[in-house]
Amino acid sequence: MGEVILTMKGIDKSFPGVHALDHVDLEVRKGEVHALMGENGAGKSTLMKVLTGIYKKDEGTITYEGKDVEFTSPKEAQEAGVMIVHQELNMLSHLTVAQNIFIGREKMSGKLINDASMNKAAKELFAKLNIEIDPTEQMGNLTVGKQQMCEIAKAISHESKVLVFDEPTAALTESEIEELFKIIRDLREKQLGIVYISHRMDEIKMITDRVTVMRDGGYVGTLDTETSTKEDIINMMVGRVIYEEPKTKSNVPADAPVVLEVKNLNAGKMVKDVSFQLHKGEILGFSGLMGAGRTETARAIFGADPIDSGEIIIGGKTVHIKSPADAVANGIGYLSEDRKRFGIAVEKTVAENSTMASLNHFMKGIFIDKKKEAQVAEKYVEQLKTKTPSVEQLVVNLSGGNQQKVVIAKWLVRDCEILIFDEPTRGIDVGAKSEIYQLMNELVKMGKSIIMISSEMTEILRMSDRVIVMCEGRKTGEMAIEEVSQEAIMHCATKREG
Amino acid sequence: MEKNVKKGNAFTNNPIVKMIGTQKIVVLGVIILLAAFFSVLSPAFRQYSTVVSIFDYSYYVSLMAVGVTFALITGGVDLSIGTGTIAAGLVGGYVVGHYDLPVAVGMLVCIAFGLFLGIFNAVTVAILGLPPFIATLGSMMVARGLGSIMAGASSITWPQAGTPNGWFRSIFKINVGGKMIPIGFLIVIAVVIIMSIVLNKTRPGRYIIAIGSNKEATRLSGINVVKWHSLAYLISGFFTGLAAIAYAATFQAVVPGTGAGLELDAIAGAIIGGTSMTGGAGTVGGTLLGVFVMSLLKTGLPFIGLQANWQQIITGIVLLIAVFVDILKNAKK
Prior knowledge:
The complex is a heterodimer of chains A (498) and B (333). With 498 residues, chain A is an alpha/beta fold. Chain A is built from 17 helices and 24 strands. A six-stranded mixed β-sheet of chain A has the order 6-9-10-3-11-12, sandwiched between helices. A six-stranded mixed β-sheet of chain A has the order 18-21-22-15-23-24, with helices on both faces. The longest helix of chain A has 16 residues, at 174-189. In chain A, 46% of the residues are buried. Chain B has 333 residues and is mainly alpha-helical. In chain B, the strands form two sheets. A two-stranded antiparallel sheet of chain B has the order 1-4. In chain B, strand 2 (174-176) and strand 3 form a beta hairpin. The longest helix of chain B has 26 residues, at 48-73. Chain B is globular, with a radius of gyration of 20 Å. The two termini of chain B are 17 Å apart.
């Protein structure tokens, strides 16, 4: 680590009704990867928005390269060398890679844009970063990982000295993450100051030098990554010990009936000959790397994608599921990994979302029985301990964990017996996570059966009664929780077939 | 090509096909097929005069379509170009006839009217943020009423060929020994080349594509999106003015209250030529080819006994097919 390049001191920011940042400090040195951690809503993004001039701070000082600065726009910050690589990529999918990198500062010959010289410059840039991408390719044709590399290249081409990565690995595959880390380490060598925002504890240990933790808009402290443990960091984030031990014993009685059986399921390229059984009151964990075909399996069972061949047996009867409506009619509820896109209508109220899948039970003639709707919604708000001022609140105003509870309520109102949780705690903060876990445990006690797809090893180990592992569309492992180990799962998850 | 990039088939990977664009080649094929189809079914179609009328019809639609391509590429649309063309033609012709002014003044008035319409749309869409479909549906009605009011609600006749002020008619068609030569085609080609360069090789064009691709990302790149979004509608308005001149030069009279539906010919042309309804993609050259498909249909259908009402039905269906193909293309990505 070199000298200090960026110091944010006593940063304070309020929005009407919310004290978003309460005298927060952050110090970044040259040649350091500095993790910024905290639960969702802790104020990490707000702090970064203050840094890059999207928000104006109320109090505090920002010192960059020895001078006090206050950027008034991302562009100004960019020109000074401070840039964010966004979580949601800012790409123009119809333009080429080179055109994206140089957008807003095109290389010109007279009045005309000189694409050839932009392609050449992009190529040199990629060579410098050891990235292999064709500058003339359309951005939209690249994988998410490659698109992110382009964003990084763009930042480097701005002569950035401080780079902020906002959850960069959220959408990447394992090999892409490795490639990304290589580049980040390379940038550290080149003496850039890097701020790394992530929820993934294992990444923090792997790539960062120091960790600054925020909680509820306040500064908690800064640690050296090497000398601190996971528990230290989590304790700082939540203010309490919540790290739980993995499950050691299945809670499912040996004679529990099979509620769902899938036989030789084939669907598209990502589901090949998958068979398994789900018992009543069981949490069946689906583990595997990104792109293993777990979500695709779930979508096929739920009727969201067409099935090519195979059999689905529910309660002893073979069923033909051709659409989500068929699946719901057979008592299957699906909680999507992408809640905002597929799980919930964010601009609707808690009550409206709760009854969405079973509206025909809430009709009075041709009108919706608003009173009954509100009553039922309230019942589930209470039962699931959803934090909302009222059932008339718009879902968009709830936190991620509480949105997830509204989705669960939707399927409970529908009386679903089989619930598929696809990455149930993605994007949910640590506190709300344990509440969701508790809820899942209660659901199985009530006799519901759960398929849980999760990419987090700790989640799989902690929640599952049995674990199925997939790799490249095939089931490569099935084990009872008593015989599960991280090593065994990883072994199956990488068991590729010719 | 890299391995992480999707591969095409032998046809789409052919260097010539790649340079021109798959869609344009397909459209070119459609044009040839249509021409062959009409020629076989109707001997009367196989005449020189048919070619002239195909070109006649194509001029003002091409100009409208080139302009609206820019609005479409931003992810919007401009529905006011049809009634706008007629209104500009009415006002321009009225000024020439009523005040006895040179026809050049009338032509400038056409362009000014088109630009006025473009500014109007730019304010409502790019500055006030109204949905383009509704905003330009509104200005479409405004243009229709305004043209009739300003021109006094009667048909307007621009100076005829042969009169001193009638020279403007030979911009698009000259009479050589009794034979009409459709030279307007050269003008249209020149316009298409210029606007292709503007779209693909200049900053304004690049930013218009960028806005259609991802407006927020464009804004965050430090680009003044309001300015360039506005420009797209100004270009559309400007070309509405040019289309009015072409219309006046081609037809005997400009009739108030008409023009609704012309915009669909132009928009259909652009979409057939590969411009995406969702923005971000499109070429001016493709638009011209698309207009020729429409032009062939308009001119050819009467020869096989399908009159005006059938033409409208077919125009509607062709538009729907073109949009559907566009959706399929996007779904593939």
